[in-house]
């Protein structure tokens, strides 16, 4: 026989509560150590996304839409020439309001004389085409110089105007206009 002292087998015999008798969580509280030879990536070591191409080596594109019009815009560093469908801005948009609409993103960001802009616009009328060109120019400027985005966003130039013409419904003369009712 050995002279070993008897240890209590249950926590109640030792005068302690079951919570106190359970071992303290050591492994679950501490982060697990990586396996030998494995390297954990940290936030600073994560691969950065590739930088976007800048207009120094080519064109920057932007697409704008308004009503039924679609404008594809190319911007490149240059002297400030603006052509729309191969014509000068003043020739394609004869009204001052349409010209001002197209030039507003450039005037707000003070980049009027910095870029040559080529716009291909299709569909719709003068108002829709000038609005589409404005959105396309703003998107191209944002691609070329990302620090201009707050100014463009604040001016509302990066928000697409989603208003479209409502379709005609059957049984009606237009979208909502009914045929005239005749009592006799």
Summarize this structure briefly.
With 184 residues, the chain is an alpha+beta fold. It is built from 6 helices and 5 strands.
Give a description of the structure.
This protein has 184 residues and is α+β, with helices and mostly antiparallel strands. The protein has a domain at 67-154: Ribosomal Protein S5, domain 2 (2-Layer Sandwich), CATH 3.30.230.10. It is built from six helices and five strands; from the N terminus they run ααββββααβαα. Strands 1-2-5-3-4 form a five-stranded mixed β-sheet. The chain is flat, with a radius of gyration of 34 Å. The model has no long low-confidence stretch (mean pLDDT 81).
Characteristic terms for this protein:
alpha+beta; Ribosomal Protein S5, domain 2; about 180 residues; 6 helices; flat
List the helices and strands and how they pair.
Layout lengths: L10 H4 L3 H4 L38 E7 L2 E9 L4 E3 L2 E2 H4 L3 H13 L6 E8 L3 H19 L4 H6 L30
Parallel strand pairs: 3-5
Antiparallel strand pairs: 1-2, 2-5, 3-4
Helix pairs in contact: 4-5
């Amino acid at each position: 026989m050995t002279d070993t002292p008897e240890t209590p087998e249950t926590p109640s015999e030792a005068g302690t509560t079951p919570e106190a008798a359970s071992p303290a969580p050591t492994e679950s509280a501490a982060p697990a150590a990586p396996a030998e030879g494995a390297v954990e990536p940290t936030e600073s070591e994560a691969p950065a996304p590739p930088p976007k191409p800048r207009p120094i080596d080519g064109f920057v594109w932007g697409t704008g839409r308004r009503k039924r019009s679609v404008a594809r815009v190319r911007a490149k560093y240059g002297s400030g020439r603006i052509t729309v469908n191969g014509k000068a801005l003043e020739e394609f948009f004869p009204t001052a309001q349409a010209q001002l609409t197209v030039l507003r993103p450039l005037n707000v960001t003070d980049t009027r004389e910095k870029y040559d802009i080529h716009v291909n616009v299709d569909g719709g009328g003068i108002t829709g085409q000038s609005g589409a060109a404005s959105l396309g120019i703003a998107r191209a400027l944002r691609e070329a110089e990302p620090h201009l985005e707050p100014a463009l966003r604040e001016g509302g130039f990066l928000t697409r105007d989603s208003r479209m013409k409502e379709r005609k419904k059957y049984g009606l003369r237009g979208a909502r206009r009914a045929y005239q009712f005749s009592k006799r």
